[in-house]
Amino acid sequence: MTVLPPDDPGRRLLLRGALALAAVAGGAGQAVASPAGASGSGVEVIQEAYSGQRIVDLVVESAALGHPAEVRLLTPEGWHARRPAHRWPVLLLLPGGDGDHLAWTRDYEIQSLTELRHTLVVMPQMPLFGFCTDWWNHGGGGPPAVESFHLREVLPLVERRYGAGSRRVVAGQSQGGFGALSYTARHRRMFRAAASYSGYVHPLGHPHAVKAAMDYLGLEWTALWGDPVHQRAIWEAHDPVHLAHRLTGIPVRLSCGDGRLGPLDPPDTQPDEHIPGLEDPDAPFPPDILSPTEAIMREENEALAPVLRAASARVTTRFHPGTHDPAYWSREFHASLPMLLRALA
Fold first, then answer.
1. Whole-prediction pTM value?
2. Please, which pLDDT band fits residue 17 given cuts at 50, 70 and 90?
3. CA dist 118 to 46, 109, 114, 155, Å?
């Protein structure tokens, strides 16, 4: 997997308002070495940093990713005194395509929410355009194994060392919204509810968009799931539309804009950066579309919602005007939080 330099403009894809990945939260607190040999299912903590507002930042050596990675925890009130004997319910928050796990606290300030004072919030990073997936790599497997990092390394680690319990819900933005639904469907009984904010929830509906974005970023697009024709079974095994039958009875919230100027977009909002090949020449975008990415997400969410209802998932939707922008994801996270917390009760 090719990794672009931190200042490459491709990092703007899918998160127009967040142009750069944040580094390890050094300076946010005093870094301390972990106890020797501390690990959990292939991942070893090599650094912990404690800061105010109940935040703990981890640097872990991940076998699944093949390199160190970062995880931010928002700990419950009283966590320091009561861990590890006490077990708290878990909210797993997944990042968008740039992998920036710090946005939840830096941009959305979820640490200020009193509703989360009794919940352990787990925010792992993701490689650039990692798509919450163990990459196929042309049949070879191996890194980046993002799904394994999130679910088979991070979750067992926080259960072992940081007081995480077995009651879990998951939410994510953009690619993280895809991950929230795909993970919930692929791992039955792991999560009690899922929420997706502008999620890429039907990749088989727009495989040309996956190709265009990965070509633009310098990534080998068939390394993800293979060719959508010849390896269709792999695509279907990850696509929430094809996994809807596995979400029966699960509370699911879908929210998405339409790609047009919306109430949270400044009047001078500029169109998304042009991605060659993103537009289907047989179905060009209307002239008032500022965010082609969000227009595609809207089509995918509108395709998924009735399939989920037919499968008896407990679906709520909010389809609104607006672009592929963090302002909407913050609003929709707040709107979905009561549903997520009810599922944890």
1. 0.88
2. very low
3. 27, 16, 9, 18
